[in-house]
Each structure stands twice: as C-alpha cells, then as structure tokens.
Design a protein that fits this description.
The protein is α+β, with helices and mostly antiparallel strands. It has three helices and seven strands. A seven-stranded antiparallel beta sheet has the order 2-1-5-6-7-4-3. 18% of the residues are buried.
C-alpha cells in the first residue's frame, strides 16, 4: 500500500517522492504476521480520532496482555474503549476512522494501525485495518510502564 494522493502531492512538492516510494512499501493493508504477537502482548494502546465536531483527540486504552488481538489479517478486536466523559467517548462509534498506536515503551517498538470501527459493543470493539506499519523509534525514549497497582483508584478524570 502506498500513500494517498494528497500525501503524494506534498512529497512531490518537497522533492521527496523517491524517498516516499521506498518508505511506502512498509505500509500494509493487512496486519503482518510479525505484528500480531506484538499487538497481543500490549497493555497500552493510544487511540486517536476526531470528535463529532471535528476536533482531533488522543486517549489511552489499557488492559491486560491480550486485550487487543488480530482476529484475522484485517480485523483487530479491542476489549477496551474510551471511558464516559473522555473526549473520544462520543467518537468511538461504528464507521469512525480511528488511529491506534501500540507501543512497547521499554524497547521503543511501535506499530500503527489506522482503520474504521465496524463493531462497537460495551466490552468489545472491532477495527477494520486500512493501513498498518511500524513506526521509527528515533524520538522515543525508553521507559518502564508502571501498571499503578499500588496507586489509589479514583473516579473519572
């Protein structure tokens, strides 16, 4: 899968079309086998989307390893959704364009999945992948994820 027409126009104007052609080969319409176990091992996903007014937001989704799994080559099952009151709560609906980032902070590995929500239930959402690619870890500092087990639990923030 390559870049869309608008991205190609910008790359051409910047004189970077050849570089973009090389990078574009890493964008897949399906979830590569190598990414599936990585996604299933994650406890944190960053989700981004536009709210009903068109404003862009990002939120964290979390769960135990396995809360996100590839059901097949194009479908991610996510056993989490934005909480009530979250800026993305109203945007998390069937037909919404969603961008997901699975990131392993300790190793800086990350995978992007852009797609469309095709099912939204209270405890399960299905995302149909459109673009799947690994991101460069260049600007990510390695960190340890603290699951907050000892931290007091509060209400909605």
């Amino acid at each position: 899968m390559q870049f869309h027409e608008g991205e190609r126009a910008v790359q051409q104007r910047a004189g970077r079309a050849a570089q973009a052609d090389k990078l574009g080969r890493g964008i897949h319409a399906e979830i590569p086998d190598v990414f599936r176990p990585f996604l299933a091992a994650q406890r944190l996903l960053i989700a981004g989307a536009a709210d009903p007014a068109g404003a862009l937001w990002a939120t964290a989704l979390s769960g135990p390893p396995g809360f996100v799994v590839a059901r097949d080559a194009r479908t991610l099952a996510i056993a989490a959704r934005p909480s009530a009151g979250d800026a993305l709560a109203d945007a998390w609906r069937v037909g919404a364009a969603i961008g997901l980032l699975g990131i392993e902070l300790a190793t800086r590995r990350r995978v992007r999945v852009n797609g469309t929500l095709i099912q939204v239930e209270p405890n399960l959402s299905l995302l149909r992948a459109r673009e799947v690619f690994g991101n460069c870890p260049r600007y990510i500092q390695a960190r340890a994820l603290d699951d907050g087990a000892a931290a007091p639990r509060g209400g909605a923030v």
